Amino acid sequence: MNYVITGGAGNISKPLSLSLLQKGHQVTVIGRSKANLQELIDAGAKTAIGSVDDVDFLTQSFTGADAVYAMVPPNFGVADWKAYIGTVGENYARAIAASAVKQVVFLSSVGADLSDGCGPVTGLYRAEQALQKLKEVNIVYLRPPYFYNNLFANIGLIKNMGIMGSNFSSPAGKFPIVAPIDIAEVAASYLLNPNFQGHQVHYLSSDETSTDEIAAAIGKAIGKPDLKWVQFSDEQTLNGMLQAGLPEEIAKNYTEMGAAIQSGKMQAHYFDNRPTQLGKIKLADFAAQFAAVYTNS
After folding, report:
1. How far is CA 245 from each of CA 140, 165, 213, 241, 289, rounded to the nearest angstrom?
2. Greatest Cα-to-Cα distance within the chain, rounded to the nearest angstrom
3. How far apart are the first and last CA of the chain?
Protein backbone atom coordinates (compact mmCIF):
# COMPACT_ATOMS: atom_id res chain seq x y z
CA MET A 1 0.00 0.00 0.00
CA ASN A 2 1.05 3.57 -0.66
CA TYR A 3 0.43 5.99 2.20
CA VAL A 4 0.91 9.73 2.60
CA ILE A 5 1.35 10.96 6.17
CA THR A 6 1.17 14.63 7.08
CA GLY A 7 2.65 16.02 10.28
CA GLY A 8 6.33 15.32 9.64
CA ALA A 9 8.12 13.70 12.58
CA GLY A 10 5.47 14.71 15.11
CA ASN A 11 4.40 12.75 18.18
CA ILE A 12 1.69 10.93 16.21
CA SER A 13 2.94 11.03 12.63
CA LYS A 14 6.39 9.60 13.43
CA PRO A 15 5.27 6.39 15.21
CA LEU A 16 2.46 6.01 12.67
CA SER A 17 4.91 6.24 9.76
CA LEU A 18 7.35 3.83 11.41
CA SER A 19 4.55 1.34 12.03
CA LEU A 20 3.52 1.37 8.38
CA LEU A 21 7.13 1.13 7.18
CA GLN A 22 7.82 -1.82 9.45
CA LYS A 23 4.95 -3.66 7.79
CA GLY A 24 6.54 -3.16 4.37
CA HIS A 25 4.38 -0.37 3.02
CA GLN A 26 5.46 2.67 1.02
CA VAL A 27 5.21 5.85 3.07
CA THR A 28 5.65 9.45 1.98
CA VAL A 29 5.94 11.88 4.85
CA ILE A 30 4.99 15.52 4.34
CA GLY A 31 7.04 17.96 6.37
CA ARG A 32 8.48 21.44 6.36
CA SER A 33 12.13 20.41 6.81
CA LYS A 34 13.92 17.36 5.43
CA ALA A 35 16.46 17.54 8.25
CA ASN A 36 13.71 16.81 10.78
CA LEU A 37 12.69 13.67 8.90
CA GLN A 38 16.07 11.91 8.82
CA GLU A 39 15.06 9.06 11.14
CA LEU A 40 12.06 8.34 8.94
CA ILE A 41 14.20 8.57 5.79
CA ASP A 42 16.64 6.09 7.33
CA ALA A 43 13.68 3.79 8.00
CA GLY A 44 12.71 3.90 4.33
CA ALA A 45 10.25 6.76 4.07
CA LYS A 46 10.05 9.08 1.11
CA THR A 47 9.59 12.77 1.81
CA ALA A 48 7.61 15.63 0.35
CA ILE A 49 8.86 18.97 1.61
CA GLY A 50 6.39 21.80 1.49
CA SER A 51 3.53 23.56 3.22
CA VAL A 52 -0.06 22.60 4.00
CA ASP A 53 -0.86 26.14 2.86
CA ASP A 54 -0.03 25.08 -0.73
CA VAL A 55 -2.93 23.20 -2.34
CA ASP A 56 -0.96 22.37 -5.49
CA PHE A 57 1.83 20.84 -3.38
CA LEU A 58 -0.68 18.81 -1.38
CA THR A 59 -2.43 17.63 -4.54
CA GLN A 60 0.83 16.49 -6.09
CA SER A 61 1.86 14.76 -2.85
CA PHE A 62 -1.49 12.96 -2.44
CA THR A 63 -1.76 11.77 -6.05
CA GLY A 64 -1.35 8.01 -6.28
CA ALA A 65 -1.84 7.38 -2.56
CA ASP A 66 -4.08 4.55 -1.41
CA ALA A 67 -4.80 6.45 1.81
CA VAL A 68 -3.85 9.70 3.54
CA TYR A 69 -3.43 10.63 7.19
CA ALA A 70 -4.14 14.35 7.53
CA MET A 71 -3.57 16.63 10.51
CA VAL A 72 -3.22 20.37 11.02
CA PRO A 73 0.32 21.20 12.14
CA PRO A 74 0.74 23.81 14.88
CA ASN A 75 1.28 27.38 13.77
CA PHE A 76 1.58 29.93 16.55
CA GLY A 77 2.38 32.82 14.23
CA VAL A 78 -1.08 33.30 12.74
CA ALA A 79 -3.39 36.25 13.39
CA ASP A 80 -6.57 34.12 13.55
CA TRP A 81 -5.84 30.59 14.73
CA LYS A 82 -9.35 29.21 14.24
CA ALA A 83 -9.52 30.56 10.70
CA TYR A 84 -6.07 29.16 9.91
CA ILE A 85 -7.01 25.67 11.06
CA GLY A 86 -10.24 25.82 9.07
CA THR A 87 -8.35 26.97 5.99
CA VAL A 88 -5.92 24.05 6.23
CA GLY A 89 -8.96 21.78 6.34
CA GLU A 90 -10.25 23.43 3.16
CA ASN A 91 -6.82 22.97 1.55
CA TYR A 92 -6.89 19.28 2.39
CA ALA A 93 -10.41 18.96 0.98
CA ARG A 94 -9.39 20.58 -2.30
CA ALA A 95 -6.24 18.48 -2.61
CA ILE A 96 -8.04 15.23 -1.75
CA ALA A 97 -10.69 15.93 -4.38
CA ALA A 98 -8.14 16.89 -7.03
CA SER A 99 -5.89 13.88 -6.35
CA ALA A 100 -8.78 11.38 -6.28
CA VAL A 101 -7.75 9.89 -2.93
CA LYS A 102 -10.63 7.83 -1.53
CA GLN A 103 -9.51 6.85 1.99
CA VAL A 104 -8.60 9.50 4.59
CA VAL A 105 -7.95 9.50 8.33
CA PHE A 106 -8.18 13.02 9.76
CA LEU A 107 -6.93 14.01 13.20
CA SER A 108 -9.62 16.12 14.85
CA SER A 109 -10.48 16.48 18.53
CA VAL A 110 -13.05 16.03 21.24
CA GLY A 111 -15.25 19.12 20.98
CA ALA A 112 -15.21 19.27 17.18
CA ASP A 113 -18.95 18.63 17.21
CA LEU A 114 -19.37 22.22 18.48
CA SER A 115 -19.36 25.14 16.06
CA ASP A 116 -17.91 27.69 18.49
CA GLY A 117 -16.45 28.29 21.92
CA CYS A 118 -13.69 25.65 22.03
CA GLY A 119 -10.58 27.61 21.08
CA PRO A 120 -8.45 25.85 18.43
CA VAL A 121 -10.91 22.96 18.35
CA THR A 122 -13.41 25.35 16.77
CA GLY A 123 -10.95 25.48 13.88
CA LEU A 124 -11.08 21.68 13.68
CA TYR A 125 -14.89 21.88 13.54
CA ARG A 126 -14.47 24.10 10.48
CA ALA A 127 -11.92 21.70 8.99
CA GLU A 128 -14.32 18.80 9.48
CA GLN A 129 -17.08 20.79 7.80
CA ALA A 130 -14.87 21.32 4.74
CA LEU A 131 -14.00 17.62 4.54
CA GLN A 132 -17.62 16.54 5.01
CA LYS A 133 -18.40 18.03 1.60
CA LEU A 134 -16.37 15.22 0.02
CA LYS A 135 -19.26 12.79 -0.33
CA GLU A 136 -17.31 10.38 -2.58
CA VAL A 137 -14.41 10.08 -0.13
CA ASN A 138 -14.36 7.74 2.88
CA ILE A 139 -13.13 9.64 5.94
CA VAL A 140 -12.57 8.72 9.58
CA TYR A 141 -12.44 11.68 11.96
CA LEU A 142 -10.33 10.78 14.98
CA ARG A 143 -11.48 12.77 18.02
CA PRO A 144 -9.03 12.30 20.88
CA PRO A 145 -9.27 14.33 24.11
CA TYR A 146 -6.63 16.30 26.04
CA PHE A 147 -3.08 15.07 25.38
CA TYR A 148 -0.89 13.84 28.24
CA ASN A 149 1.93 15.84 26.63
CA ASN A 150 0.09 19.09 27.37
CA LEU A 151 0.85 18.49 31.05
CA PHE A 152 4.55 19.14 30.44
CA ALA A 153 3.61 22.84 30.39
CA ASN A 154 3.16 22.52 34.16
CA ILE A 155 6.84 21.81 34.86
CA GLY A 156 7.71 25.46 35.43
CA LEU A 157 4.66 25.95 37.62
CA ILE A 158 5.59 22.97 39.75
CA LYS A 159 9.20 24.06 40.14
CA ASN A 160 8.38 27.70 40.85
CA MET A 161 5.14 27.45 42.87
CA GLY A 162 4.81 23.81 43.88
CA ILE A 163 1.44 23.39 42.16
CA MET A 164 -0.03 22.43 38.83
CA GLY A 165 -3.30 23.51 37.25
CA SER A 166 -5.26 25.41 34.64
CA ASN A 167 -8.61 27.16 34.27
CA PHE A 168 -10.43 23.85 34.58
CA SER A 169 -10.74 20.93 36.95
CA SER A 170 -12.55 17.64 36.48
CA PRO A 171 -13.85 15.02 38.95
CA ALA A 172 -12.99 11.32 38.92
CA GLY A 173 -13.63 9.60 35.61
CA LYS A 174 -14.61 12.81 33.86
CA PHE A 175 -11.27 13.84 32.36
CA PRO A 176 -10.42 11.70 29.32
CA ILE A 177 -6.78 11.97 28.33
CA VAL A 178 -4.69 10.40 25.59
CA ALA A 179 -1.14 9.47 24.62
CA PRO A 180 -0.02 10.27 21.06
CA ILE A 181 1.23 6.70 20.60
CA ASP A 182 -2.28 5.41 21.27
CA ILE A 183 -3.66 7.77 18.62
CA ALA A 184 -1.02 6.51 16.19
CA GLU A 185 -2.10 2.94 16.87
CA VAL A 186 -5.75 3.69 16.11
CA ALA A 187 -4.81 5.63 12.96
CA ALA A 188 -2.66 2.70 11.81
CA SER A 189 -5.53 0.26 12.34
CA TYR A 190 -7.67 2.22 9.88
CA LEU A 191 -4.90 2.77 7.35
CA LEU A 192 -3.84 -0.88 7.35
CA ASN A 193 -7.45 -1.96 6.76
CA PRO A 194 -8.76 0.84 4.53
CA ASN A 195 -12.18 -0.65 3.93
CA PHE A 196 -14.06 1.95 5.99
CA GLN A 197 -17.00 3.49 4.19
CA GLY A 198 -18.63 6.91 4.32
CA HIS A 199 -17.83 9.43 7.02
CA GLN A 200 -17.45 8.26 10.60
CA VAL A 201 -16.28 9.69 13.92
CA HIS A 202 -14.02 7.67 16.20
CA TYR A 203 -13.64 8.82 19.80
CA LEU A 204 -10.61 7.49 21.66
CA SER A 205 -8.65 8.00 24.85
CA SER A 206 -5.97 6.29 26.90
CA ASP A 207 -7.45 6.83 30.35
CA GLU A 208 -10.33 8.54 32.13
CA THR A 209 -9.23 10.24 35.30
CA SER A 210 -9.51 13.50 37.26
CA THR A 211 -7.30 16.55 37.59
CA ASP A 212 -6.73 15.75 41.27
CA GLU A 213 -5.61 12.23 40.34
CA ILE A 214 -3.27 13.69 37.72
CA ALA A 215 -1.59 15.90 40.33
CA ALA A 216 -1.37 13.00 42.80
CA ALA A 217 0.17 10.61 40.26
CA ILE A 218 2.68 13.15 38.99
CA GLY A 219 3.47 14.31 42.53
CA LYS A 220 4.22 10.73 43.56
CA ALA A 221 6.42 10.19 40.49
CA ILE A 222 8.52 13.33 41.07
CA GLY A 223 8.81 13.00 44.83
CA LYS A 224 6.26 15.70 45.69
CA PRO A 225 3.42 13.67 47.23
CA ASP A 226 1.53 16.79 48.34
CA LEU A 227 1.31 18.24 44.82
CA LYS A 228 -2.15 19.68 44.15
CA TRP A 229 -4.13 20.71 41.09
CA VAL A 230 -5.29 24.33 41.35
CA GLN A 231 -8.08 25.75 39.22
CA PHE A 232 -7.25 29.28 38.09
CA SER A 233 -9.62 31.89 36.74
CA ASP A 234 -9.72 32.48 32.99
CA GLU A 235 -7.99 35.82 33.54
CA GLN A 236 -5.21 34.25 35.61
CA THR A 237 -4.71 31.54 33.00
CA LEU A 238 -4.58 34.02 30.14
CA ASN A 239 -2.13 36.28 31.95
CA GLY A 240 0.04 33.35 32.89
CA MET A 241 0.34 32.22 29.29
CA LEU A 242 1.08 35.75 28.12
CA GLN A 243 3.79 36.09 30.76
CA ALA A 244 5.23 32.77 29.59
CA GLY A 245 5.62 34.26 26.11
CA LEU A 246 2.70 32.77 24.20
CA PRO A 247 1.24 35.05 21.51
CA GLU A 248 -2.02 36.67 22.58
CA GLU A 249 -4.05 34.93 19.86
CA ILE A 250 -2.82 31.52 20.98
CA ALA A 251 -3.23 32.28 24.69
CA LYS A 252 -6.82 33.49 24.20
CA ASN A 253 -7.72 30.33 22.29
CA TYR A 254 -6.20 28.02 24.89
CA THR A 255 -8.06 29.91 27.62
CA GLU A 256 -11.32 29.49 25.71
CA MET A 257 -10.64 25.78 25.30
CA GLY A 258 -9.99 25.42 29.03
CA ALA A 259 -13.27 27.16 29.80
CA ALA A 260 -15.05 24.72 27.47
CA ILE A 261 -13.47 21.78 29.32
CA GLN A 262 -14.55 23.30 32.65
CA SER A 263 -18.14 23.70 31.48
CA GLY A 264 -18.27 20.06 30.41
CA LYS A 265 -19.58 20.90 26.94
CA MET A 266 -16.35 19.97 25.20
CA GLN A 267 -16.38 16.38 26.51
CA ALA A 268 -20.15 15.84 26.41
CA HIS A 269 -20.27 14.16 22.98
CA TYR A 270 -17.30 11.98 23.93
CA PHE A 271 -19.20 10.57 26.90
CA ASP A 272 -22.31 10.15 24.76
CA ASN A 273 -20.17 8.04 22.41
CA ARG A 274 -17.66 6.70 24.92
CA PRO A 275 -15.15 4.22 23.46
CA THR A 276 -15.61 0.65 24.65
CA GLN A 277 -11.86 0.11 24.85
CA LEU A 278 -9.25 2.60 26.02
CA GLY A 279 -5.64 2.85 24.91
CA LYS A 280 -2.59 1.28 26.54
CA ILE A 281 -0.90 4.29 28.18
CA LYS A 282 -2.42 4.87 31.60
CA LEU A 283 -1.88 7.82 33.92
CA ALA A 284 0.75 5.94 35.95
CA ASP A 285 2.69 5.21 32.76
CA PHE A 286 2.70 8.85 31.77
CA ALA A 287 3.62 9.98 35.27
CA ALA A 288 6.86 8.01 34.93
CA GLN A 289 7.55 9.74 31.60
CA PHE A 290 6.76 13.09 33.17
CA ALA A 291 9.20 12.44 36.01
CA ALA A 292 12.03 11.74 33.56
CA VAL A 293 11.41 14.98 31.69
CA TYR A 294 10.93 16.92 34.94
CA THR A 295 14.23 15.67 36.35
CA ASN A 296 16.14 16.68 33.23
CA SER A 297 14.51 20.09 32.81
Report:
1. 35, 18, 29, 6, 25
2. 56
3. 41
Domain 2-146+178-203 sits in which CATH superfamily? NAD(P)-binding Rossmann-like Domain (3.40.50.720)
- Residue 173: left (phi > 0), alpha (psi -120 to 50), or beta? left
Secondary structure letter of residue 114 according to DSSP:
S
Average pLDDT on 13-26 reads 98
Distance CA 151, CA 136 (A): 39
> How far is 185 from 189, CA to CA, in rounded Å?
6
Question: How many residues make up the chain in this entry?
Answer: 297
Q: What is the pLDDT of residue 205?
A: 98
- Determine how β-strand 175-178 pairs with β-strand 207-209: antiparallel
For 96-120, write each residue's pLDDT tens digit: 999 999 999 999 999 999 999 999 9
Query: According to CATH, what is the number of the domain 165-171+207-295?
Result: 3.90.25.10
* Beta partners for residue 70, in sequence order: 106
Strands (E), the chain: 2-5, 26-31, 46-49, 67-70, 103-107, 138-143, 146-147, 164-166, 175-178, 199-203, 207-209, 229-231
